[in-house]
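Hello forum,

I keep getting stuck at the same step: I have a sequence, I want structure tokens, and every attempt I make locally crashes halfway through. Rather than fight my setup again tonight, could one of you with a working pipeline run this one for me? It's a single chain of 199 residues.
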Amino acid sequence: MAVAIRLSRGGAKKRPYYRIVVSDSRSARDGKYLEQIGTYNPMLAKDDPARVKLSEDRARHWLSVGAKPSDRVLRFLDAAGVLERAPRNNPKKGEPGEAARERAEEKVAKLAAAEEAAKAAEEEAKAPAEEAVAEEVAAEEVVTEEVVTEEAVPEEVAAEEAPAEEAPAEEVPAEEAPAEEAPAAEEAATEEAGEEKAE
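Reply #2:
Ran it on my machine without issues. Output:
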């Protein structure tokens, strides 16, 4: 008969509680056992001393008889100093399985397809926007041409009216001329007045 030291689950749903038992390796996990040598309560904090309770002398007895501990129980025995557990190295531990790799590849392909679709949608959105900008520029050119033609007409009208405006400008110097002649006339009048007084 092969004897194993392993965990036997008890407790309620989502509230596990384990017994550390010595049992026949062929019996059911939660079935009959030869002896209970401790308890394990994973619901308690890791630093709580009541998390793992183990009878070290009974564990040494069953190990001396040839009982094989499970990996989890071997960890408890190593922590208690009963039996040393050799460190293990599993370089593939963090690697995903085949199904997970396939799902990741499908996800990457879907993301790439979605990015291409988004780029195509942006290009389609840019094309009408560029056409709208071109239409606005063309409309602005038409408006500026109309403004230029409207501005050209007043310039022609202004050119025709310019001689009429220049005439008053020419009259202004003519008015200034009599003003300049006025002092000469005053001087002449004062001279005549001076002659009359002399007589």
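Helices lie at 56-65, 71-80, 98-198. If your local run keeps crashing, start a new thread with the error log.
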